Amino acid sequence: MTLSREDRALALAKLAGITIAPDEVEEVATRFESLMLELERLKELDLSDIQAPVVFPDEGE
Question: Residue 18 gets which letter from DSSP?
Answer without folding.
Answer: -
